[in-house]
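Let us practice reading a record.
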Amino acid sequence: MSPIRSSTSRFSILLRKKPFPIPSPGPPCPSGILIDEEISPFYNPRNFYPAKPGEVLVDRYQIIVKVGWGVSSTVWFARDLQGRIEEPESIVALKIASCNSSLRAGDGEREVEEHISTVNPSHPGRSVIRTFMDSFELQSSEDRGHHSCLVYSPLREPLSMYQRRFEDKRMPLPLIKTYIRVLLTGLDYLHKECRTVHTDLKLDNIMVSFEDPIVLSDFMKSQLENPMAFKINSTGRPIYQCKNEFGPLKSLRSLPQLVDFGLATRVEEDDDWGVWPIQPDHARAPEVILGLGWQMPTDIWSLGVLLWDMIEGNTLFQNIHDQSGRYDAKYHLSEIIALVGSPAPEILQRYQLMRNYSWPEPIRVEREDGKICKTAEEYFCGPFFDNDGRFLYENLIPDRKLEDTVPSLEGEEREEFLDLVKGMLVWHPNFRKTAGELARHPFLQSK
């Protein structure tokens, strides 16, 4: 029996896809210009894996083109060589995390996504959440640890890029309604079934699928003919400039998916809540700013804020930074009060109780100015309310009304939209609608 197995194995190898020849180098970039991940303020090239086109990882994935980057990872499209020669090309997205002796980037993301992928596969929202298909580790070239690698199905682009393909960055309203309904179904699965908070909802973390397989196929062929520009940095490493322009839309058949669970947090019990700062600046919920503790409803607030980015093509809270461009919580709270109203008495009572709550030692957080903070008030430069519950910066409250922030909607449609978001932008997180409830709202059912 052994010789037969050996012969079969050799035959399978012969039928397996072969790596493409290493492509010719692309045009050089000026050495003095920062590219992609180099822009990050804490960038250290030795922490990033020096991936290069043509390289085959773990004897299976051949890297072709870099399509994305972040402060702790790069993303590449690669060929999966496991398929047989006669089978169509299989393309995957590889997220290669940086390595750091004090932080194993990618490990938390892998753990959360393993949980999400297995809780309840029959829930319709499960398909809205992209989780990894495979994972492996690569040894750092300078013995600085390991790089965690997660393998995903490829997606077209983030919603922030997708919506630019439409006039004035406004997608057709029926399409937006479909997207919102789909995203809420995904959050219903994430919150109700997985008890997980995404914590980082933004347009860049909502991606859309390819509307037609030929778009991806044509893109991959073009990369072999027109390789990425690159430069050699001061450490002798090549840095490639990502290419993620897939061309005009062939149709509107793309669907959204929630991605990037590197900052996601599982909530084990009802009385288990986070206290450290989360969320993008303009989508930050009031309970996060005030240090009241947060759970799943913080994601609902964030998505509610993002609806203006989707429908109006601009942000709801427009003046939340100081003159130097830094996020300033007192300006943000001023806008929240103008548009949503003053906080509920229960919120003010909890704020007074939590003002001096000190984060546990491992959760000390460093501000942009280098100060190590142990309370939300320290981090966000409070206090914000006096002992009587009066807002300390009433002079900053702008003369704006929520009803005036959606000029593109009229009549009943406008009223239904405002009714939807008023169930999301609520000071008290316990009184916000759940994702499942919101997905059934009349605004999302009408065409």
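A brief commentary: Residues 161 and 204 are 8 Å apart (CA to CA).
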